[in-house]
Design a protein that fits this description.
CATH class of the largest domain: Alpha Beta
CATH superfamily of the largest domain: Periplasmic binding protein-like II
Order of helices and strands: EHEHEHEEEHEEHEHEHEHHHH
Number of strands: 11
Largest sheet: 6 strands, mixed
CATH architecture of the largest domain: 3-Layer(aba) Sandwich
Number of domains: 2
Number of helices: 11
Strand content: 15-25%
Shape: globular
Helix content: 25-40%
CATH topology of the largest domain: D-Maltodextrin-Binding Protein, domain 2
């Protein structure tokens, strides 16, 4: 029986390198892997479903699924995870406390950017900010012209104004915005002393949030074309299993004190911090191990109008991956 020939587009991560290089094969599948810039992958995946398997923005995926678009089916394989208390940047001459966000102009690169969904979730659920009391602005972070990639269903009373001819960085730097919520720092964060993170001790805040709530934000998920899974339902489990093995191999490399497989000093100390916050398996795949994170994100996405209805985690992953056992 011949193998299923599939294309895959992903970015660069140590926890998938064994898949990319063929050291961990996917049973029954012959993989043609491309490692491309994330912007290209997302644009081609959302707009054209160019690849059989692809890395995908979590927010855009759940938005599409909430609207009945099931061309892409996610597996509970989470390629990028980044806590987002640190994603809230403010002008300290305008915003010092959570109450100061009321009436202020706050920018986002896209309303449906995953990092922005989590950042606004922190604002609403940890800081008590009423998101409808904020004047939201959507524009490119460093360059003008960025637009939303999925339709939104904004809640009543929420104001979101697109700006096509200016960047968030320019507006924040010149004082035309009071804050920005974004995945990466605006350029003026390094040059303008008035631009700071809202959470001064952001690392401590993120670690404690993860420790108490067991929420480690999921940025990117792995998706497979529905047509592939309709033709070969077994592929979902085989792909998941191979990626889980590659993940475990990567974690073992990071834990090994005798080598620097990733060029980060004191990496083993970072592993200890992650275990303190999340437990022994600090980067889990699968549904149940990630339920607190998934429940929180789907709630945030629905409240903010990224999802058009409230989804359950079971709806967004194939049934054969619901009870995947970690060994």
């Amino acid at each position: 029986m011949s193998k299923l020939a599939l294309t895959m587009a992903v970015s660069h991560y140590d926890h998938i390198v064994d898949i990319v290089r063929g050291r961990v094969p996917i049973e029954g599948i012959e993989l043609d892997c491309m490692q491309l810039p994330l912007h290209d992958i997302f644009q081609r995946t959302v707009g054209y479903a160019d690849f059989d398997i692809a890395e995908m923005s979590m927010a855009k995926y759940v938005s599409m699924r909430s609207q009945g678009d099931d061309r892409l089916i996610a597996l509970p394989v989470f390629l990028s995870r980044v806590s987002r208390h640190s994603a809230i940047y403010v002008r300290k001459d305008r915003i010092k406390t959570a109450a100061d966000f009321v009436g202020k102009r706050v920018g986002v690169p896209e309303w449906a950017q995953t990092a922005a969904v989590y950042g606004r979730g922190v604002m609403a659920h940890e800081l008590g900010v009423d998101l409808t009391k904020v004047k939201w602005v959507q524009a490119g972070l460093g360059e003008a012209g960025r637009a939303e990639k999925v339709p939104l269903k904004l809640p009543n009373g929420l104001e979101l104004t697109p700006v096509a001819d200016r960047s968030l960085t320019e507006m924040l730097d010149k004082g035309d915005l009071d804050a920005v919520v974004a995945a990466t720092p605006p350029n003026c964060f390094a040059s303008n002393p008035n631009v700071v993170r809202f959470y001064e001790n952001w690392l401590e805040a993120e670690v404690e949030y993860a420790r108490v709530k067991k929420i480690l934000p999921i940025m990117h998920v792995l998706v497979v074309k529905k047509t592939v899974l309709d033709r070969a339902p077994w592929a979902a489990g085989n792909i998941f299993h191979a990626f889980d093995i590659a993940r475990k191999n990567s974690i073992r490399r990071c834990e090994y004190l005798g080598a620097s497989v990733i060029p980060v000093p004191w990496l083993s100390e970072a592993v200890k911090r992650a275990k303190y916050a999340m437990g022994g398996d600090f980067w889990p795949y699968g549904l149940e191990a990630n339920r607190p994170t998934l429940d929180a994100f789907l709630q945030f996405a629905f409240e903010q109008g990224v999802c058009h209805r409230l989804l359950k985690p079971e709806e967004i992953f194939p049934e054969q991956t619901h009870h995947a056992v970690r060994v």
